[in-house]
């Protein structure tokens, strides 16, 4: 599948990661429409200075949406961090979790930040009730995202497809909101998102590498797999 063909998809692909080299390489791909990251990905990437990393990458990427997350647990500190992050760039979306670690809803904070004109990305949702709980909080606010972690839903043995399809319908009256199919576990989810009309899907760098496989001849792929197993067996020096 060529970059041009991917670019014609209605669902926007956002790259999800914290590897600066990888992010900048993906920035050169016109079909990558935005970027997201989170404290867990940044920790895995060995980032120790959150603000410096963000400001450096935003100098390189000033013209596509980029989501950065608060990491506080108390609402006043979440608000302070959100206001700080929002100042980093006009293309910045501030990620606010649907609750804090005690399960307290962030709805009031979302309302307050939306009223102040912040672009938000509400993250870590897994149910339609959570979507219903917050959609009214964005009345009159600028463009914002609602991220349902479809991949984590799938990890529990539940197919997220119907839930995501219903979520698309729930957001239809809210033209300032876009739904994100978050944490996909396989490339096929990109086409699931496209089929239901989901606005955005966030995709990790390792899954994005599989885009080159789209449209591949399956018989040829089978033969390549056989050859791989044979070659690895030979290199291992196995005997029976």
Give keywords.
240 residues; alpha/beta; TIM Barrel; 8-stranded parallel β-barrel; 12 helices
How would you summarize the topology of this molecule?
Elements: H1 3-7, E1 12-16, H2 20-27, E2 32-36, H3 39-44, H4 50-60, E3 66-69, H5 75-86, E4 92-97, H6 107-115, E5 120-125, H7 128-134, E6 144-148, H8 150-155, H9 161-171, E7 177-181, H10 188-196, E8 200-204, H11 205-208, H12 218-236
Parallel strand pairs: 1-2, 1-8, 2-3, 3-4, 4-5, 5-6, 6-7, 7-8
What does it look like?
The chain has an eight-stranded parallel β-barrel, surrounded by six helices. Helix content is 45%, strand content 17%. The protein has twelve helices and eight strands.
The topology string of helices and strands comes to HEHEHHEHEHEHEHHEHEHH
Strand proportion, as a percent range, falls in: 15-25%
Contiguous low-pLDDT stretches (5 residues minimum) are none
Q: Find the structural class using helix and strand composition.
A: alpha/beta
* CATH topology descriptor: TIM Barrel
- The total tally of domains equals 1
The percent range for helix content is 40-55%
What is the second-level CATH architecture?
Alpha-Beta Barrel
Helical stretch tally:
12
- The dominant shape is globular
Distance between the termini: 42 Å
Side-by-side strand order of the widest sheet: 1-2-3-4-5-6-7-8
Query: Averaged pLDDT, please?
Result: 95
Supply the CATH class.
Alpha Beta
The main sheet comes to: 8 strands, parallel, barrel
Fourth-level CATH superfamily: Aldolase class I
Number of strands: 8
Instruction: Give Rg in angstroms.
Output: 20 Å
